[in-house]
Fold this sequence. Notes:
With 669 residues, this protein is of the alpha+beta class. It has 24 helices and 24 strands. Helix 23 (645-653) links the parallel strand 23 and strand 24. It starts with a helix and ends with a helix. 2-(butylsulfanyl)adenosine binds next to strand 3, strand 8 and strand 11. 2-(butylsulfanyl)adenosine binds at residues 81-83, 114, 116-117, 121, 137, 174, 226-227, 288, 307, 310, 312.
Amino acid sequence: MSEELKREIERLRDEINHHTYLYYTKNAPEISDAEFDKLMQRLIALETAHPEFASSDSPTQRVGGAPVEGFRTVRHAVPMLSIDNAFDFDTMRKWDASTVRGNLEGRSVDYVCEPKIDGLAVTVRYEDGKLVLCATRGDGENGDDVTANIKTVQKVPLALEKGFRPRVLEVRGEVYMSKCEFDRLSREREEQGEAPFANPRNAAAGSLKLLDSHETARRKLSAWFYGTGEVEGAPFGTHKEMLDYLGKAGLPVNPEIKPAKDIDAVIAYLQAFEAKRHALDYGVDGVVVKVNDLRERETLGYTSKFPRGLIAFKYHAEQAETTIESISVQVGRTGVLTPVANLAPVLLAGTTVRRASLHNEDEINRKDVRIGDRVIVEKAGEIIPQVVSVVTEKRAGHEQKFQMPAECPECGAKVVKLGEEVYQRCSNMSCPAQIKGRLEYWASRDAMDIEGLGPAVIEQLVGKPLVSDVADLYAVKIEQLAGLERMGEKSSKNLVEEIAASKSRGLARLLTGLGIPNIGQAAAESLADRFNSLDDLAAVKGDDLLKIDGVGPVLAQSVVAFFASSENRKVIEKLKAAGVGMTARRAKRPEGGPDLSGRTFVVTGTLSGMSRSEAEAIIKSLGGKVGDSVSKKTDFLVVGADPGSKLQKAEQYGVRTIFDADFKKLIGR
Ligand code: IVH
């Protein structure tokens, strides 16, 4: 029986891995999403019912694991070097003639041209086809063990395809964030009042180095592979053969990679690719040209720093020169003041650019940007226009230094700088710009989802003023709305109904809508899972918050600070009085059973008269959470016969144990 189960679990894992590969890497799914979900559900069910077969390389583990304190350092079996750069075709031709052919008796040499992906170099080690270790490049000799984070990248196979599972295959490639995902994340961070990442590369780096891999899983990273480290049992003669092998093994290999029979063909590739690269959904900052024959590459060897057989041709980021006509200051939902340069319109990488973020005062001072300056603008990571530098030679003397205002440009309140922050903030909670930002956020789809309450209506509501905080929305009358521009009787009635309907969206959406710094949708949901009401959450101590899965010090501090503010408490009381629901929406627990909400259980061993999945279902129905491995955040380990290593782990972490009979008593059986 158990052999059979084990085989089924393994078959399901193989099947899921294969379909993940077809979907994410080949873009050629063979089954529907629903069929895929069914396979996954079956695997989750089996693994939950039979934790003895759980495995860290199961596709169920892609969602990320428990947060870690830091990363372990790993030494690379084969160092991860960097390569020499070239910025023009002349240098490329010299490299071909003297560095390459000059050292190979003038023979003709063929090359492979590859997009140089603007991400982070990683190495992923497979042993007998199974993913065992992932690490960052680090200093080239030693990197960080980021296995848990890389496993959340769907394009990275957890197991190689059958027939391509050599003893050891260490592959090297680039983890990156697509432009599309970067846009999504930037919008999300802006909404949450968090500092945006400057470009997709920084976003990818930040995401890969998160201590909480659940969060990495939420940020959809991607990868391309282009090389190998240690290899045992898979011989390759050429680079092209190696790439073909990686592709067949299920690893993502970039389709823009092309062979070139000589340096003329290389240059033709560089020219053709320059225009094409902007249209790709990932950042490319150049082309890596590689000698195809691996023996020739070995013969060429290394200079003191770089391998001779590879070179990176770098494209210049597209830049343009324009004038800063003025600088305005925007105030966001959290009061952060952002200086924005208004530019004389200029064409850059296919679009007309009129504005560029200047980020903050320190940035302005560092670059010495003045109003009236001629400046060079560039698209960072090809997306957000940035002011790179000032053309100081062109200063005429009429340029004006810019000072961040001491008063908020929207409300006139004092501008403050908190602690170490680089940002200045408007100190007035009632600043109309902040109110508008908070209302927009409250009404947004992931929060209270109030259809019809967009920026134009909010602007008027705040301007009148009819509304000065989110709670006031619930007192707005149809007649008042109908008096606003572009609002008819019918749309006013609909909006009032929509607002009223939002009273029962539940705790998770309420928490999202309140816009507590660092609490986005995901964090709000896990808090709502754990607490029955907003009052319960408000009453909790910071230390107790830290015990919750996925809650770190920053988040805990944020929650505590939010509820400490009397302004915030006043709004919450007003919301309550308006009838906005403040409790979690979850299935009712069975009559009479104990309330296990907020508690995490792990079940181990064989319970008498009850299967493990039955026990877990009961715990969940009583409001408890079920984990599959014991960690510091486990509250109780339920112990049946033949418990195994989980019991030791529980002792080690000081997790309380409940034996079979007591567990039955607890659940009232
Ligand atoms: S080959 C011996 N190929 O560029 C080094 N690197 O400047 C072998 N990169 O650290 C690297 N795309 O992070 C290679 N197709 C590609 C690449 C690539 C991006 C990055 C990589 C490397 C850096 C080298």
